[in-house]
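Provenance

Sequences were taken from public entries as deposited. Structures were produced by running a predictor on each sequence independently, with no templates supplied. The record for ABC transporter ATP-binding protein from Anaeromassilibacillus senegalensis is shown for reference.
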Amino acid sequence: MLQAKHITISYGAKTVLKDVSLDFAAGSLTAIIGRNGCGKSTLLKAMSRSLIPQEGDVLLDGTSIFHQNTKKLAQRLAILSQGVRSPEDYTVRRLVCCGRYPYAGFGGRLSQKDFDAVDRALADVNIAHLCDRPVETLSGGERQRAWIAMLLAQEPEVMLLDEPTTFLDIGCQYEILRLVRRLNREKGITTVMVLHDLNQAARYAGRVVVLRDHGVFADGPPASILTPDLLASVFGVQARVLLDEAAGVPYYIPQEME
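Predicted structure for ABC transporter ATP-binding protein:
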């Protein structure tokens, strides 16, 4: 459904991604991990058309996203970037209404159908009771739910999330990841998210892509690829790999380096 084809991106003389190709099946949930600066966010920007690669293409159902109508593409693909902020006077409802702008009529006017979609999105992330609150007064977890509701209001087929748990406490991190997984399963939204926590990636994503040296270093189910050798090679960390038998997923305990 979503394909990155031979993507190469450089910032000046620095190559960040070189000849990267990845396919994301419809309804899949993928985590992208790697060291800081390896190109995770850059890849998401390219796949959302926020950044044009020097070489390669991104296809949605076989058609280049760079040649698609902007409003039509926004009805199918949504991205939540790092550190986004809403205007100070925006309420939660007004923020979520922004997700309906790709559907808006003449002059940006929203219809009852649009407001119904906003109500569904608020309910889907369990913040309908916060709809009249200014976004800036929300807790970190509530604010992230509001942004995800805005994406849901777009009714997208694909959702790209760049570090959706950044700056959240551990409880809120797991709440957001459980929400993302639930939306992926219940609505069938193809989801690609950048994460830093390997245990969270292994627990919530059915597939993990590891970036290193400007390209894809490993790609597959967490239990198959997230080995002690990979953690040492990519992150410089010695770790024990254990199995959470209840969840059926691996988890990692770092060891002291000598």
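Residues 30 and 192 are 5 Å apart (CA to CA).
The chain has two domains: 2-76+157-254, 85-155.
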